[in-house]
Amino acid sequence: MSDNHNTSRCDDCDLTFPGRQSEGQCLKCARLAAHPRDSPEYADIVAWLNLFVTRRNGMHITIQGSDRVITCGSTICKATIPGGAPEQQPERRPATHNVPATVLDRSVLTRQRLKLGNHGATSTLRTQTLLQHEHGGGDPGEDKIMIAWQVRVKKSLVPDLGQGAKNWAASVLLLDIKGSLTDQISLQWQRHKSLPLLPEHVSIRWAGNINPIENTSNLTVGEFYAIHSSNGNAAIYVDTVPSVWKQLAAAAKRKNGFMALELYVDLESWAETATIFDSDEGSSSRLSSSSGSKTQKRLRTESDASSSASKRLKTLQSSSNQGTHLTGSRLGSQFGGISALSGPAQVHNRTRVVLKRINCIVDPVTGIPEFETSGHIINGKLGDLSLSHGAMKNVYDLRCDNGPSLVLKRFYRLNEDSENTTPNCLPFTVDEHLVQIQAEALRLALAGWFLKAFIKHANDGNIVVDSGLAFAEAFLAEEINSPSPASGVIEIGPSFSGLTWLAEQKRSTVVEHFTYTLSHKSHKKDLRSATVHAFAHFVWGHSNQTLVIADLQGTPALVNNKDGMVLFDPMTHTKDGASGIGDFGIEGIQSFFRDHICGDVCLRLHLDKTVPLMLDANHEDQEQESDKGSNSDPQSPRNDDIETTGPASP
């Protein structure tokens, strides 16, 4: 045998096997040589080998010149084939023997995923969220109190709506906790009901269905705990702990404090709201947007809604008693534990500001407003980024050196046509902004004046109304000395005034809507809602039929040291449409005439008779002429028609 004899080639079948070290016959030919060609054993070996060659994963026959080459597909095997190396991509096919191609491909894909850069997170528990959980909604190091909660509907606890426990900072408003937990249990609620729960359908109670001390539901967690744990109250409230929380309570009390609370769902209130919203498709945006459902089952009557809700509740309770629970609803996790892996804490940038306070004063008799300087200077740190924003305004947090925290509001656009989304950008002049922010302060002050007149009118007639209503006390705050990044102003000087903000006390984020800009229908039948809608009717009369108040919304808060509602950001519609952004003029006034239905308070005050909802003949004729030539959408703000006057002088 010559030195250049190819040991990888079989002498009998003339097939080439790369990497083969021995000479002579291949394994196939060696086995076949031991049997006669006409024997059954010979036929079996031929069939088995052919089957092996065709079915073995990765095994194939390659025609290389005049040679037939058999390889397994491995790097070593294919590298021995002349001209075969370029076909192989080492980074995709590892050098390994007899590994199925599917396994190799899976390995390649895994390595590719590991090489990927940053990509979108699949969890909502980002660093800021985890830190909020760790700090209980407060500042790092702040005292915390553990709150364990369950859900009660009527007389029964409903575990399938969720339950949980978490440490909350003492400075957090109990109202905000209720809003957060309501959003959580509403997800489970909607699995059995057509519409979601809202915060006004839920109240805070102590374990065992015990009502808290009166006028404490709008306090902070620390204040709420202090009142119910002192003066002999602890035995009634704090020490009432269900067995499910006993062990947790014992550990929590050794550290700070523990409260076993219940979220009481007012089923009748929810059914009433669902009925009214369902029968009023044009005003159901709040509930439908919360539920995320495009189509809802119609409820014919209030009794039908309550009955249907009760039946669904029984089904829910029955499934709970039988041990079949909704997936993931047994324990409502709020994650208050380990946060070491959540990353570094977010750094909030704040800028020192100096603000000059300007008050809006309303004449107690005529209601004519004016602005005056107070001589009061406010020093503090203003957040560079907004806390939240609405359709037209941004809201920023101001931490005052002396006094409570405030929120500062400013417009980031002055009409619906503007699409300004750039943070801290001011796409208009300081004076243009001053005109509109003054109009906001005027509306608030004037609304407060109307409300006092309304309460007096009701008291004079011995008519019961909700006296726990008040409008937010606001003032204007002009930046002096140097501008803040949040203002969007570049320079302050003799010829360049600083931005003027609308300043209000910081309140809860839970908001209850009574009316909207062009929708004034009542959605509830309780005393508070009836009072607000009667007040809106009263304003039309007390303004000598010149003004309609709209977009009435509020936040539960203490009013005269009692649980009440603070209303804010009202809008007005006037005959000339010149009271500020959102004034739809005659169109807005007529939207109130169209939607308002006198309720119990209206009727007892005889507003249906003494204050007719109609325009005078001249304005009726003008509106008819306007309608003939107008093709505007009544639901779209006509900001090009809004007229404004110059800035009022402080």
Describe, in plain words, how this protein is organized in 3D.
- Residues 282-293 have a biased composition (Low complexity).
- Residues 280-327, 618-650 are annotated as: Disordered.
- Keywords: ATP-binding, Kinase, Nucleotide-binding, Serine/threonine-protein kinase, Transferase.
- The chain has 650 residues and is an alpha+beta fold.
- 31% of the residues lie in helices and 19% in strands.
- It contains 17 helices and 21 strands.
- Strands 9-10-12-13-16-15 form a 6-stranded antiparallel β-barrel. Strands 4, 5, 6, 7 and 8 form a 5-stranded mixed sheet that branches.
- Helix 9 (267-279) packs across helix 11 (302-321) and helix 12 (430-460) packs across helix 13.
- The model is unreliable at 49-67, 85-95, 117-134, 281-342 and 628-650 (pLDDT under 50).
Distance between the termini: 114 Å
Given this structure, which CATH class of the largest domain is correct?
Alpha Beta
* Unreliable parts: 49-67, 85-95, 117-134, 281-342, 628-650
Number of helices: 17
Oligomer: single chain
Strand content: 15-25%
Q: Provide the helix percentage.
A: 25-40%
Judged by helices, strands and strand pairing, the structural class is alpha+beta
List keywords for this structure.
single chain; about 650 residues; alpha+beta; Ubiquitin-like (UB roll); Phosphorylase Kinase, domain 1; 3 domains; six-stranded antiparallel beta barrel; five-stranded mixed sheet; 21 strands; about 30% helix; about 20% strand; disordered C terminus
